[in-house]
Structure formats: C-alpha cells, structure tokens
Specification:
297 residues; alpha/beta; Aldehyde Dehydrogenase, Chain A, domain 1; Aldehyde Dehydrogenase, Chain A, domain 2; 2 domains; 5-stranded parallel beta sheet; 11 helices; 9 strands
C-alpha cells in the first residue's frame, strides 16, 4: 500500500480519493481469500463479458462509440482474447507460497499490492479492462480503470458486468471501479493516489504514469517487428501475419507492425504473403503512401 499522502484540494482529487477509499475497503474484504476463491472470481468476471449475447452487445457498442476497428475483431477480442488471458493465468499461484528456493533457503510469499490504477486505450477498450481487472483480482487487489474518453461508456458497460459477477460470487463490486467521466486530471490523480499503475496508451500517457510518483508498469506503442528466417514454416508465418495485421483493422497494439525477411527466404515469403492477400505497392504508390502517412517526413 502506498504511503499516506496529502490530497490536493481539487474536485478531481477529492472524487478520486473517495473512489480509492471504496477500493481499499473492497480489497480488504478479499485480502485473505484462498487461491480457489480468487480463481473462482476471475472465471466469473470473464464469463460475464465473454458469454454469448453479452460479447456481441459489447462488440457492437465498442464500434459505435470508438469508431475504431471492426465488429468481427472486437467480438473476437472480447469473447476469445479475454478467455485466452484467463487460461494464461488461471493455473498460476498468486496466494501464499508461490516459490521456494531450497538451495538458498528462500521462500517467496505473494502479498496483495492494494489498489491498482489502470489506464485503458481507445484502441482496445473491450479487452484491456477485463485482462487488467482479472490480473488485479488474481493477486487479491482492487482496480480502478481509467478509460479513454472515446470509450468511456464501453468501459462502464464492461465494468458493470464484472461488478455484477463479483456480487453474485459473494465478493464486493468495488473490486472493479470505472471512471465514468474521464479526464486527464482524474487519471493523473488515480495514478498519484493508487498503489500501482498499469498504463496502456500512447507515449505521453505512459510517461505520465512513470513520472506519477507511484510504481508503474507501462506499455506504449507496441506493434512488433516480425522477422522471418529460413527455419520458419513460411505458410504458417504468412497466415499468422495476415491474421495479426487484419484483426480489428490492426487497431490493437499487438498487431504486427512490419516484417523483416532474410535474403534466403525473401522471394518465397513475399509470394506466401501475396497468397494471403498481401499487395506489393509500386514505387509510385510507395511515394504516395509516404507523403500521406509521414507528412513532412
């Protein structure tokens, strides 16, 4: 838990202080939950948003509000990516003794951090809140989610579904709290007053998280460079690159950004990418793209 600090005398600071107090009260109620109890909570949280009917509703609303990506991509992320994230962590130990080093006589015991302040981007407003929320609760923490203004209603809908699931499972709803009317000032206050920041967004927002005075984990622009060498299954690589680059119109930071081909596979891999629907631009088209995307260089 963060050290007690003086709260600024502003409406935003006072509002956030009230939310932090609610979060702390909720977190205290699950601080001594067993592994089985927290795992049951996160299963329920994911099912609440990924179940048939609800997932479609969230996907449609995300597109209508954010005007980013496409319906098929949003549906895939809310119905499958959230469940994949759950499967990634469900068997991990997060309560009690989680590691023993007998050679060095060290025992690692998991302890909750407290209140997590999370930032959710407009490009991934359907999956990021869920994944961050289950990660927080898995560690017996509470979380406050600050959405991008372009996806604030989507964020509230998702958080409300998770809150309802928590109550049904006997846990406090305030383990997950959305900022309903977001602003830069409120987000900054959440980062100042919480115990740990999970920041996903543009470079300036991630920088703000790291300079907030609170321990932070930040992820800015992602979009990894993909390297294909002569050990790769070229058909599989081309298919995966196509899927990554087209899912949700590449709105997600996990979409591939660029591809580096080693000389040994260059011509063959280029052909495989074209078979997947890739298009090789002419020199003239390349120049027009450069002028459009990188204005003034």
């Amino acid at each position: 838990m963060a050290a007690v600090q003086e709260i600024a005398d502003t409406p935003e600071a006072r509002e956030v202080a009230d939310l932090i107090a609610r979060s702390r009260a909720a977190q205290a109620q699950i601080e001594h939950y067993t592994q089985e109890q927290v795992d049951r909570l996160i299963r329920g949280m994911v099912w609440a948003v990924a179940q048939p009917g609800v997932a479609e509703e969230i996907a449609r609303h995300t597109i209508d509000e954010s005007q980013l990506g496409n319906y098929e991509g949003k549906l895939t992320k809310i119905s499958r990516k959230t469940r994949a994230a759950l499967l990634d962590i469900i068997d991990d130990k997060s309560v009690g003794v989680i590691e023993e080093d007998h050679e060095r006589n060290l025992v690692k015991i998991a302890k909750p951090v407290g209140v997590i302040g999370a930032l959710a981007p407009s490009t991934n407003p359907e999956a990021t809140p869920v994944i961050k929320a289950i990660s927080a609760v898995k560690g017996r923490n509470a979380i406050i989610i600050c959405p991008h203004p372009r996806a604030k209603i989507t964020n509230k809908i998702i958080c409300d579904h998770m809150r309802e699931a928590l109550v049904k499972l006997g846990a406090p709803a305030d383990l997950v709290i959305p900022i309903e009317i977001p602003s830069v000032e409120k987000t900054n206050e959440v980062m100042r007053q919480c115990d740990r920041v999970l920041a996903t967004g543009g470079g300036p927002m991630v920088h703000a998280a790291y300079t907030s005075g609170t321990p932070a984990l930040g992820v800015g622009v992602g979009n990894a460079v993909i390297t294909v060498d002569d050990s790769a299954d070229l058909d599989a690589a081309a298919e995966k690159i196509r899927i990554s680059k087209t899912l949700d119109l590449a709105a997600s930071c996990s979409s591939d950004n660029s591809v580096v081909l080693l000389d040994a596979v260059y011509d063959r891999m280029l052909g495989k990418l074209q078979q997947q629907g890739g298009y090789v631009v002419t020199p003239e088209e390349k120049a027009r793209l450069q002028e459009t995307i990188w204005v003034n260089g």
